From TrEMBL:
It comes from Linum tenue. GO terms for molecular function: hydrolase activity. Residues 74-194 form the Alpha/beta hydrolase fold-3 domain. This is Alpha/beta hydrolase fold-3 domain-containing protein. Coiled coil: none annotated. Belongs to the 'GDXG' lipolytic enzyme family. It comes from the Eukaryota.
Length: 306
């Protein structure tokens, strides 16, 4: 290896950075095209949200929706520790096809910019820009599938791991803003939150902050009062955790904080769904297992529960 191509940092198991500044990813780089999925009967296509930042998304809908019927909207943010993956990665694409079939929704899977080429808060800003685009004049966004099928009174934000972290911050920001989109509920799958004691060096790699794992982006329990359900500005929150996931305890602590505030105001319903014997995002790595079927069923039921 030439001196210009020596490794300056290895962020296992995701990528390595070379001394010449190039980034070599060895996870999350596979992709599949959008189109019709015969197994689920779901259509998808790629759309541009903002050409100035190359912000895009993959949008999904059932092939058949009764004429005049409006269905819920799920805005999805993928995981990958803010440094790998995309909506086109096979496990995310197939997972969204499955959700759209089982929950009968329109889904918008956001392709936010990744670190280290784009350090945080780039991913948060892209994610917010996607919500601004969706608001598009009170639900009149210029996208035919949304205009024809979307029920803008039933918009859900959903994400796994880093994506669940993102929707926590999006909900806080939307509640404090005048953005004209109503968030009915949040679905947080294995949320990526740390405490004051770091577990790995991934976070400090993606977020140039002097606060480390006490940065409010990764630790929702710092900076004053613990997170409350009312601050999220929606009616319902579902938090999914997996028993063997290193993030499980933090997800439960987040749930308990929301649940305590739920009891105080009575306006928000907060649910915890724990999968025994499974690890982080098992439903994507092993989608054919019984536990994955249970997770997707719970997810779809949460969306369609009135």
């Amino acid at each position: 290896m030439s001196p210009a191509r020596q490794i300056s940092r290895d962020v296992f198991p995701f990528l390595r950075v070379h001394t010449d500044g190039t980034v070599e990813r060895y996870a999350g780089t596979d992709s599949v095209p959008a189109g019709f999925d015969p197994e689920t009967g779901v259509l998808s296509k790629d759309i541009v949200i903002s050409s100035s930042t190359n912000l895009s998304a993959r949008i999904y809908r059932p092939k058949s929706v009764p004429e005049g019927r409006k269905i819920p909207v799920v805005v999805y943010y993928h995981g990958g520790a803010f440094i790998v993956a995309s909506p086109a990665e096979p496990m995310y694409h197939h997972g969204l096809n499955r959700l759209v079939r089982e929950a009968e929704v329109v889904a918008v899977s956001v392709d936010y910019r990744l670190a280290p080429e784009n350090p945080l808060p780039a991913a948060y800003e892209d994610s917010w820009a996607a919500l601004e685009w969706l608001a598009g004049g009170g639900g009149k966004v210029d996208e035919p599938w949304l205009r024809e099928y979307a029920d803008f009174e039933r918009v859900f934000l959903a994400g796994d791991s880093a994506g669940a972290n993102i929707i926590h911050h999006l909900a806080l920001r939307r509640c404090r803003s005048s953005l004209a989109v109503k968030i009915h509920g949040l679905v947080m799958i294995h949320p990526y939150f740390w405490g004051k004691d770091p577990i790995d060096n991934w976070w400090t790699f993606v977020c140039p902050s002097n606060e480390g794992c006490d940065d409010p982006y990764i630790n929702p329990f710092v900076g004053g009062a613990p997170p409350s359900a009312e601050e999220l500005g929606c009616q319902r929150v579902a938090i999914f955790v997996a028993e063997r996931d290193i993030l499980c305890d933090r997800g439960k602590a987040y749930y308990r904080s929301l649940a305590r505030s739920e009891g105080q105001n009575g306006k928000v319903r907060v649910e915890l769904v724990e999968t025994k014997g499974e690890d982080h995002i098992f439903h994507l790595f092993n989608p054919d297992c019984e536990a994955a079927a249970g997770l997707f069923d719970s997810w779809a039921s949460f969306i369609n529960h009135e």
